[in-house]
User: What shape does this take?
Amino acid sequence: MLTHGNPLGFSAVASHLSISDESFTAVCTGKNGKPDRMGQVQHSRGKRSAHLTFMTSGENSSALAASELLDELTLRAGEMEAINLLAECKESDPAFEEVRHNAFSIYGWETVWQFPAKLPAAEPQEYLWERMTAEDEPNVHTLYQTLVPPLVQTTEPYSGADIHRLISRNNGELSAYVESDSGPNGIYLKPVVHPAAPAPRELLQELARIFQGLGRPVYLQMRSYQAWLTPFLEEIQATSAEHTALLVRHLTLPLLVRSAAARRLPYTQQQTETSASITQKFVEPPK
Assistant: This one.
């Protein structure tokens, strides 16, 4: 199961197996003492979430082996100071149920689309997209809060730091933004488009033209809450590469924190601190 990226070829696989402070690879041995299953987590320093990069399946591997492997990877993710462990998996993959049975829950779905090498003929559109400035940041954050479901926001909170975005306006109002990741194998776009945005087909087509000028394949992430973009992607002859479930295993638990002031409030007004670590000891409040 490849769950974060798609390493192809020996050199790419070897790079994923390299030892560093930002990754940990675990090997589970079988009854014969030989390596049976392998998995890896990666975490970038300062980020909220770690990623389950891949997990192999053994020929005679048991559910217990999968559980032990995932528990070890989860422990290592916590040691890297991640508070979530994320995974992406096709629902047809045998590993999907193994992951689900080991404290991972679905928080969304996504389909990856690839733009065609040659786009359909169209009139060039000017100024559909522009670079985001610091003054646009509050409006981009508001659009994120409006369109992205709360369950996704909890797992993938908005980040305004050091992220370059393109934005699109409609009569002066922000109607879309897109983030991008790039690498030697292509460019990966992550758009958020308001359903009221005018000419979504032209928006997508112009977006593809902008990034195709860099000479690499261009892919687009379409989350389930943006599925209304599907017919417009089909119109410009984009092809869907794969459909995956997005899963998360939380490494923290809510912890009730009461102060002297809070104890004087009605029960319905008391708050929980959602970022408290699971490793913290619960102390009964004084009576």
